[in-house]
Structure formats: C-alpha cells, structure tokens
Amino acid sequence: MSIEQEFTEKVGGYLDNLTDKLQPVLKQLIEHDYPQEVVTLAFEIFADSFSSQFPVRVFFMDIDGKATYASPVNPHLLDIDHVYPDEFEEEYIEKDEDLDPWQIATNALIEWFSKCWIAAGGQSFKLNANIAPHDSHYEFNLVECQWQERC
Asked: pTM score > 0.90 for this model?
C-alpha cells in the first residue's frame, strides 16, 4: 500500500467516527423549508482546518448569489476540535515531503460527505446542493452525485 493510500484510509477512519454526528445535521438541512429565494446549499471545504475544526461550512445561496443563513443549523455544521490531530499530518509529511495531505483529505472528505448526504435523504432534496474546496473551479453535485464546473 502506498503512503497516499495509507493516509487516505486513515483519514477515512477519522471521518467515519463523525458520521453519526453529521447525518442528523444534514437531515435537518435536507428537510428544512427554505425561503423561496434560496436555490442552493453550497458546502465549502477549508482544507487547512482538518486539524483545528470541522473543515466544512454551509452557505445558503439565494438568487442574487448572496450568502444568507436561512436554516436552524449552525453554518459550521459540527462543533469539534479537529477531524484529526496536527501530529497526524506531520507524521505523513515527514515520511514523504511531496505528499499533499490537504488535497488527499479533501478528496476523502467529499466522498464521505456524499455518502452521509445520501444516507440522510439527500437525493430527494429539491434544491441544488454541492460541496467543493474553497476557491475551486469544480464542485461535487450532491443531488446528482457528479462533478461539475462551478457557475
């Protein structure tokens, strides 16, 4: 197993430990009755936050493209100290200085988050919903389960 595969597997384990916390939050978002002007739930991943908080934040985008918080759910989704400790990233960077732990963790998070979204009933969601790394040109459409270019 490559070091990248090993890191991915371990990140997946850390994320799996959060599944029972995330799914009820996503279920609340999915079942919420949004104002008519809200058209998209945009989940942004802040990759530098895996070791300091939950790295995903939700934005409620309206037809004018402004972020407004039209939900009872905290936009930070989970109030945790970290997904994994600092030492975890450092250990793998020491093994391979070319390893990009944030990119690998982000990819693992998107796959895991999508599974949580589906388990929470997300495929019946009537609005748009996507998840992407902050400032990315691509996003993962959670309703259609596919990558797309950002508008």
From this structure: yes
